[in-house]
Specification:
559 residues; alpha/beta; 14 helices; 28% helix; globular; disordered N terminus
Length: 559
């Protein structure tokens, strides 16, 4: 999970978990043969267990994965669900664990002065290549490529007329127009597009043939501080395995602190602020750093392993060959950069033991409410923290036909901030699923709002995106930032505190003083929306003109 303003918070508990705050009715909508409410007792028990030190941060390919898979398959089995993948609870996802060691500094020579960035505090580096035990970049010419975007449909190409084979490219994070206040810029203004995501930057650099690709970290456009980069990019990394060992990817990918990037530009007789301003303008031309060469090296411990998605099925009674999907990622970072007290387990309690536990709680509630017309699939995916690997694999190798998958909901880090007057919909207005959520919200006296920080690109940072790319409408909403107690100021303060002190760090731990009342209301929304989808004969689609509409139409037509 990449933290959001509203969902990733941990504050104090209310004395009662069943009290509805003013303007926040908790009455469930009548969506089955009987109304049902997902169990908070189930949620608490599972979140506490999944985020305990015994699970070691739930990294794929570790004992933490083994314990997570056993817990989930046992829980679904006891509820009476069926193993969803041809008699198995699991779908194999081939991964390679890559652990960098003996990492040299990233050095730049040939300028007015040498510049060196140390691994960890000043730069991080890794590779997608899964069959390369040693990586060495030696005297690679350096080119500043602005935002590193090649978007023909927008008439934008930062690589125009440029050959970067064998070279190191320095790239800015986010889109060129991220500082705009509106949404009318060439890249949707303030709202990040996929071109702004770091995953795209590395993908495009590889397509262009770059030997190394280094992103300049800047806290505002990146949406998180260097602490998040350092904890996420050091230690064992998970990479999707394939037949060619990802040989077509850049040898080295990573991030560099902005002040080091500024020093690099100064050594080349350039100014980073000036270059950043130029990169925002159409027609920007990449700038070679004359005479400057980059060098670094590192070794890799490589371990192929088969991680797993968990697939549980609750068969439908009249149209069992149509499917409603509930998704959440079970994985987290495992052992990570230690806190000052020596704690080096990133437990991932909020992110995403809460979403994983919600899958079980929702399955339990649906069993109690009775079967729906359509089948319901509860999918716990691996490798989200490494780039949506498990959901991407499912999208490419679906267990149930995507053309028969009606849509669904994705859950990534439920809010512990207490009750809110709203929910924040990531990608509001993109599909017909908004209407289902609005009806469920009306029963609670709440409203749906657009994400307050669209520049952070959350639409591309959780597993719903993997299904959307294949045309399946997925609803992804988060607990609102307009809290009943304290309003938006309190919501923003709590989210910022989480991002700074707990997100992707060892202190995202279970807290017995958490306020679960907001989770209670949001779980009911997931239940009501999912159950309504499972009982209707409608096929929700993307709105006309949406980027995923044509894919959905082809899928539904069996093409």
């Amino acid at each position: 999970m990449r933290s959001s303003l509203a969902a990733l918070v941990a504050v104090f508990a209310l004395p009662s978990l069943s009290i509805s705050p003013p303007g926040h009715a908790a009455t469930p909508a009548k969506t089955g043969k009987a109304a049902a409410q997902p169990s908070l007792d189930t949620m608490k028990r599972l979140v506490k267990e999944l985020s305990s030190d015994a699970f070691e941060g739930r990294a794929p390919g570790t004992v933490g994965e083994e314990k997570t898979l056993a817990l989930l398959s046992d829980a679904f089995g006891k509820l009476g669900l069926q193993p969803g993948n041809k008699g198995s609870w699991f779908q194999d996802v081939p991964l390679v664990e890559i652990s960098a060691k003996n990492v040299s500094a990233l050095s730049f020579t040939g300028g007015n002065s040498a510049v060196s960035a140390a691994y960890g505090p000043e730069m991080v580096v890794a590779t997608y290549r899964t069959a390369q035990p040693h990586v060495e970049v030696k005297d690679s010419p350096v080119v500043f490529v602005g935002y590193g975007i090649n978007a023909p449909e927008k008439g934008w190409n930062d690589y125009a007329g440029l050959d970067v084979k064998g070279k190191t490219v320095i790239i800015l994070v986010n889109d060129p127009d991220y500082e705009m206040t509106g949404l009318d810029g060439p890249f949707n203004g303030r709202a990040m597009t996929y071109y702004g995501r770091w995953t795209y930057k590395f993908e495009e650099a590889a397509r262009q043939g770059a030997t190394a690709a280094i992103i300049v970290h800047d806290t505002v456009p990146a949406a998180y501080g260097w602490n998040v980069v350092q904890s996420s990019w050091t230690g064992a990394q998970q990479v999707a395995d394939n037949a060619n060992g990802n040989a077509d990817q850049s040898a080295a990918i990573g991030w560099i602190q902005k002040d080091k990037a500024a020093a690099l530009m100064t050594s080349a007789g350039l100014d980073l602020d000036t270059l950043m301003a130029q990169a925002k303008k159409p027609g920007f031309k990449a700038v070679p750093l004359k005479g400057v060469k980059a060098s670094l090296s590192f070794d890799n411990d490589l371990r192929k392993h088969m991680s797993k998605n968990v697939v549980a099925l609750l068969p439908g009674k009249t149209r069992p060959d149509e499917y409603v999907l509930y998704s959440a990622h079970w994985d987290h970072l495992g052992r990570c950069q230690a806190a000052p007290d020596g704690d080096d387990i990133c437990n991932g309690a909020v992110d995403n033991a809460t979403g994983t536990a919600a899958l079980v709680a929702l399955a339990e509630a649906n069993v109690k409410a009775g079967p729906t017309d359509r089948s319901q699939v509860f999918l716990a995916v691996t490798g989200e923290e490494s780039g949506l690997l498990g959901s991407a694999y499912y999208g490419d190798h679906p267990v149930f036909p995507l053309g028969k998958t009606v849509g669904g909901v994705n859950m990534d880090a439920l809010s512990m901030a207490g009750p809110a007057k709203n929910v924040v919909v990531i990608g509001k207005g993109k599909s017909d699923l908004d209407a289902y959520l609005n009806r469920a919200l009306a029963a609670q006296g709440r409203v749906a709002t657009v994400e307050p920080t669209p520049e952070k690109g959350f639409y591309y940072r959780s597993d719903h995106f993997s299904f959307a790319k294949h045309g399946v409408p997925m609803l992804y909403f988060e607990g609102g930032e307009d809290l009943v107690k304290g309003g938006t100021a309190a919501g923003m303060a709590a989210a910022e505190d989480y991002t700074e002190h707990r997100y992707h760090g060892p202190k995202d731990e279970y807290d017995p003083h958490w306020d679960w009342s907001g989770v209670e209301a949001d779980l009911q929304l997931y239940f009501d929306v999912g159950r309504a989808l499972a009982n209707t004969a409608d096929w929700p689609n993307w709105v006309a003109g949406d980027e995923f509409r044509a894919i959905r139409d082809k899928s539904r037509a069996g093409q």
